[in-house]
Design goal:
Layout lengths: L4 E4 L4 H17 L3 E6 L7 H27 L4 E6 L3 H12 L3 E5 L5 H7 L2 H8 L4 E4 L4
Helix pairs in contact: 3-5
């Protein structure tokens, strides 16, 4: 289904706020949500594969929590685990499914820190061809 919302979800407080927002928006718009989790690392060598498999397993567990929550709101949902860095993986999912919106959580860092450290929301805002909603952590 084209026009879905892609949710970047990593289980953090900010991404949990984004989860609630994505589910509410999807319900209001009558579209589904794709929960995206990128699990590639920047490490090189034989240990890299074991680390990525571990991160993928963690991602499956985290994404299934988001999937259960979204399904409980009556919204269609599916999970995409992508062998890529988080921002690049989310953008791949958006292109592959012709999504209309990306929703991600913020960790609360300053814009300067995000620019210097390369936060996922910062990268998405500057590289996406679709709108990006960055949701701050809730109190």
């Amino acid at each position: 289904m084209a026009g879905e919302i892609v949710l970047g979800f990593d289980g953090s407080i900010g991404s949990r706020a984004a989860l609630e927002e994505a589910a509410a928006l999807a319900k209001a718009l009558g579209v589904g949500v794709i929960v995206a989790f990128g699990y590639a690392t920047s490490a090189i060598g034989g240990e890299n594969r074991d680390e990525e498999l571990s991160i993928r397993g963690m991602g499956q567990k985290i994404a299934s929590e988001a999937e259960d929550y979204i399904r409980s709101t009556g919204v269609e949902v599916r999970v995409e685990l992508v062998h890529d860095r988080p921002a690049a993986g989310i953008l791949d999912v958006v292109r592959e499914h012709d999504a209309r919106l990306i929703v991600v959580g913020s960790r609360g860092e300053s814009p300067l820190a995000g620019a210097i450290l390369g936060s996922v929301p910062y990268r998405l805002v500057h590289q996406s061809h679709v709108p990006v909603l960055v949701v701050p952590p809730r109190d």
